[in-house]
Amino acid sequence: MTMPFDDDARFADYAHPQRIVGTKWLERHLGSEDLVVVESDEDVLLYEVGHIPSAVKIDWHLDLNDPVTRDYIDGEAFARLMSAKGITRDTTIVVYGDKSNWWAAYAMWVFTLFGHEDVRLLDGGRALWQAEGRAMTRAVESREPTDYPVVDRDDSVERAYLPAVLDFLGGQLVDVRSEPEYTGERTHMPDYPQEGALRGGHIPGAVSVPWAKAANDDGTFRSRAELEQIYLTEQGLDPSEPVVAYCRIGERSAHSWFALKHLLGFEDVRNYDGSWTEWGNLVRVPIVKGAEPGEVAR
Amino acid sequence: MSEQQPNGRSLPPALAQVVEDFNDLEIPDRLQLLLEFSDGLPPLPQRYAEHPELLEPVPECQSPIFLHVEVEGDDGDAVVHLYFSAPPEAPTTRGFAGILHEGLDGLSAAEVLAVPMDFTDHLGLGEAVSMLRLRGMAAMLFRIKRQVQEKMAG
Predict the structure, then answer these.
(1) What is the ipTM score, two decimals?
(2) What residues 80-109 of chain B have any CB closer than 8 A to a CB of chain A?
(3) From CA A261, how far away is CA A246, in angstroms rounded?
(4) What is the pTM of this model?
């Protein structure tokens, strides 16, 4: 860990406060050679419209996904990407983005699969930085390529594949999609394309905690006490037991993965990135419709 | 560059020019051109800005966009005008709208209806913004054509 942590009192109660920084901290440390700021958005052109000075762009679709297989890039491609962005293995990465940091959390999660040690999220993301009137630029700085090592991706800890989810039925599954997606009324987000899944509903036993419950209106994360109220008190989730989170393609659940793992300190949180676009298209997997988690057939 | 003409059918000249301009550029520069279209999307005229309910949403786009088509006349020679509204935090969608405005605004209804639905595949934007995101522009074209047909019939 090369950069100091953000010791803002707002973050002190979180389980891993070293994983989050505020806009003030970032503004103060911009330009540090140990720091690379990464913007990761849903809208592929937003970075070009203006970004935090010195930030580099990483696009979830064009940079992090394998162009052929439905999978993430491999260790060699990741090393090339990091090198091109001027990131070394020791660099502190701060990720931010649009949509309350969905895609930033998703990028952070992928970086975690490659074991990049020091990755942090900018609380409030792009919208808060802008709302506070902090500097934005269209200038793109060229960066010296680095010698980033080729590291094999390790999916065993943070990522859940379909067979693991089937074995996990009866465990703590968290569905972070919107309510109409959970009940099966829709197979997509409100106002998003009706596409991607042949069946609607949720995985049996999954509790519904829409991702946005973890966020305040300004896109920052809720306090630890508020998050405990939502996930522990209301849903009865046990932080010492494994959790699998899912959504439609794994981006909104990366946001919840961050909240559960780094803010609440759940020990074993995996993101099921196949999510509903996989489960909702599979032949003969069990599905529950309606507002209740439903029974898991034994 | 005849190999870039979709289905061998010719595009209206303004739209053909846009397709050619994109394909003449290296991939990173195509994103810059899309940004120019995004920046250059004309604002809504007052009569629509004050009545957003007159605009049709395009839910196939990942970001909020609304469009409205005016058709002057009731036959194939009727002149088509396009109006779009999309927020600045959705620049890709604004860029798509800007391309359609540049390529189609002021054409006849028959010309708009004859635009091949797959012209969006020929902009060379697949590698720059991903094919997934380009689906949003095809959906906008679909809705424009439908409004043109409805307004000619009405």
Answers:
(1) 0.82
(2) 88-93, 95
(3) 14
(4) 0.91
